[in-house]
Design goal:
The chain is α/β, with parallel strands linked by helices. The protein has a single domain, classed as TIM Barrel. It has nine helices and eight strands. Strands 1, 2, 3, 4, 5, 6, 7 and 8 form an eight-stranded mixed β-sheet that branches. Strand 4, helix 3 and strand 5 form a beta-alpha-beta unit. Helix 5 packs across helix 6. The protein starts with a strand and ends with a helix.
C-alpha cells in the first residue's frame, strides 16, 4: 500500500506532544507523505491549547516543505448524545476534525451508551473520522458502528498507537479485529493513522499494517493510498465543493 497521508498527529500545543508544526511537516516530507493533518486536542483535554489557538490557525501556511498541511482538532466527545467540546462556529473553521472518547473527558459508559456517543457524533457534518474506537475501556457494538459509519460517510480509524504494547488502551487488538470484520461486512472505509505525538512517529503503521495484512483487509477500503478518496470525508473539501 502506498501510504500517502497521515490524518492524526499532535504538536506540543496539545500539551503532551513534543514538536512544532514546522518540525512535524518537515518530518512528514522526509517520509515522502503528500498530506499531513495536525489535529490538536480540543479544549476539555487537560493541558491542551486555548480556543484562541484554534481561532488563529488561519495564520499558518497550508503548504510546508512541499506537502499539503491540514490543521484541525481531535475533539473530545463529552456526553452519550455525541456532543463535542468545540462550539460549532469554531469547528466549522477547522480543516479536519476527529471525534474520540478520552478518559479525562467522559467516563466510560455501557456498550449502548458508548456506541450511541460515537454514532451521534457522526451526525456533525464537520466530523470526518472517529478516532481510536478500539479502547476496551469504552466497549462498543462494532456492527452498529461500522454500519453507521458507512451510512453517514465517516471514516473509522485504525490507530497504530492503540496497538502499542506500552499504550494505555485496553484490548485494542481484539477490538480492532472485530471492527475490521464489521467494516468488511459493510464495506466501510477505514483510515490508518499514527496518532503521532513525536515527529519520528508520523506515518508509523508498524502495528496496524501487519494486522490489516493478517486479516486480508481490502486495500480499496483503506483511504491512505488516495488523497482524492480521503478528501471526500473531510469537511474542508466538502465545504469548498459547495462554493
Amino acid at each position: 500500500m502506498h501510504y500517502r497521508l497521515d490524518s492524526h498527529t499532535h504538536t506540543l500545543a496539545s500539551g503532551h506532544a513534543y514538536n512544532t508544526i514546522s518540525e512535524m511537516a518537515q518530518k512528514a516530507a522526509e517520509k515522502k507523505l503528500e498530506l499531513l493533518a495536525i489535529t490538536e486536542h480540543s479544549m476539555t483535554m487537560p493541558g491542551t491549547c486555548h480556543e484562541f489557538y484554534f481561532l488563529n490557525l488561519k495564520t499558518v501556511p497550508r503548504t510546508m516543505y512541499g506537502i499539503e498541511l491540514l490543521l484541525g482538532t481531535e475533539l473530545n466527545i463529552i456526553d452519550y448524545d455525541g456532543k463535542v467540546d468545540m462550539r460549532q462556529g469554531l469547528l466549522e473553521r477547522m480543516d479536519v476534525a476527529i471525534a474520540s472518547l478520552h478518559t479525562p473527558c467522559i467516563r466510560p459508559g455501557t456498550v449502548a451508551e458508548n456506541t450511541r456517543a460515537l454514532v451521534k457524533a457522526m451526525d456533525n457534518p464537520c466530523i470526518g473520522i472517529i478516532g481510536h474506537p478500539d479502547d476496551g475501556r469504552y466497549p462498543v457494538d462494532y456492527d452498529t458502528l461500522a454500519a453507521a459509519a458507512k451510512e453517514k460517510k465517516v471514516l473509522l480509524e485504525l490507530n497504530n498507537h492503540s496497538l502499542d504494547a506500552n499504550g494505555a488502551r485496553v484490548g485494542a487488538r481484539e477490538n480492532d479485529i472485530k471492527m475490521l470484520e464489521c467494516c468488511m461486512k459493510y464495506k466501510t472505509p477505514v483510515i490508518l493513522d499514527s496518532d503521532a505525538h513525536w515527529a519520528d512517529d508520523i506515518a508509523n503503521c508498524t502495528n496496524s499494517l501487519p494486522l490489516i495484512q493478517e486479516m486480508g483487509f481490502p486495500e480499496e477500503l483503506i483511504v491512505n493510498s488516495s488523497l482524492e478518496e480521503y478528501k471526500k470525508y473531510v469537511y474542508l473539501y466538502q465545504k469548498t465543493a459547495l462554493h
